[in-house]
Amino acid sequence: MAQLTVTSTGCLDVYVNECNVSNTLISLNRHAPSDVPITRTFDISHLLRSDSNTIALWYAPSYPHIEHHQVAVVYSGKDRQGRNFAHLSDESWLCRPANRTLDFCGSEAQDGYTDSAPWNATSVHIALWQGAKKGRGHTEYGKIPRDAPAGQERAIRIRTPKYFDLVGDSIYYEFGEPFYGFLRATLRDCKKGEVIHFGNFEYICNGKTDEQAFPKFARFFGKRILVYGDKWFKREQIQRLEIVEVTIVNDSETNY
Question: Which domains does the chain possess?
Fold first, then answer.
């Protein structure tokens, strides 16, 4: 029996032994423009192994983040002898920069050219990782963490464009009805370092024959997406563009 409690002022995706802690699309801990920490607890008993366990977070600060505190984790439960245990995140936790950034407007950028080595498994190369920096407790700020609002994102359908319009060097993809979700693009024969913009998502190509571009946290709301790029960009490079439409489901409908 074990649970994982995460307190955060940003957006995050949580994994245990390379498995997402929920069967919903993603774990977003904050939606409102506030820097009050949000707490969420997951039952991870079914994901644990008998030898060793790896807990990993993909974290993105969200705005505003007035104070420097970002994320805290408590791994707790009962062992096989029925004894209580609790492990707190501290300076021994290892961190490294991701190949994505999220700005204060919610726009996201992914550098596909940067090495995205495995990060949520036990067998990671730790040479480029560094210890986390311990922050001050929330009591010094007078802000008490609150439980996350009920509800998680879940994918409900995949949508493809009805048509597209060429306007100069740009492309407008029309999806007909309005949607809320994120895009997924399949690219081919792009130049290494080539930059392509998909609405509020920027992707730097890695130069492989085929590659996929998709945001992790950025979301779209609308019915058309503007796509444009640098001098290397060509419409033929986009083999497929689709929208993963998502909805918010209550925790009562979600099994952790």
Answer: 2-93+132-147 (2.60.120.260), 152-253 (2.60.120.260)
